[in-house]
Amino acid sequence: QVQLVESGGGLVQAGGSLRLSCAASGGTFSEYAVGWFRQAPGKEREWVAGISSSTTGYGDSVRGRFTISRDNAKNTVYLQMNSLKPDDTAVYYCASKKYSGSLILINVGTYEYWGQGTQVTVSS
């Protein structure tokens, strides 16, 4: 069983930055694709960014501001968030799926494992 734990959320002013971490245990981390999702109150869960062994991808609302990366030696995926906006306020979730291809997985239902989330609040 793969377990994921997010950290790094908090309160930040608009224009500021945060770096989220997703620490994984179980399985072989390098064999999994990883995605970041977010969910604000009253809204559906939204795909933010994803990474496979060879590719990264971003949702339209965060492209150019957020960067996803992975350190397989540390079993950790990061989400660097810059130029934060109040609309970025949400609970951010890390998700993973065993996947050996190069496509970016963007659908909630595709992922097998989920963390508990970390709150990001951006004030104006």
Q: Can you put this structure into words, describing what you see?
A:
By secondary structure, the protein is an all-beta fold. A hairpin with a 4-residue loop joins strand 7 (66-71) and strand 8. The strands form 2 sheets. Strands 2, 4, 5, 6, 9, 10 and 11 form a 7-stranded mixed β-sheet that branches. The chain is globular. The chain has no helices and 11 strands. The mean pLDDT is 96. The chain has strands at residues 3-7, 10-13, 18-25, 32-39, 46-51, 56-58, 66-71, 76-81, 90-98, 113-114, 118-123.
List the helices and strands and how they pair.
Layout: E1 3-7, E2 10-13, E3 18-25, E4 32-39, E5 46-51, E6 56-58, E7 66-71, E8 76-81, E9 90-98, E10 113-114, E11 118-123
Parallel strand pairs: 2-11
Antiparallel strand pairs: 1-3, 3-8, 4-5, 4-9, 5-6, 7-8, 9-10, 9-11
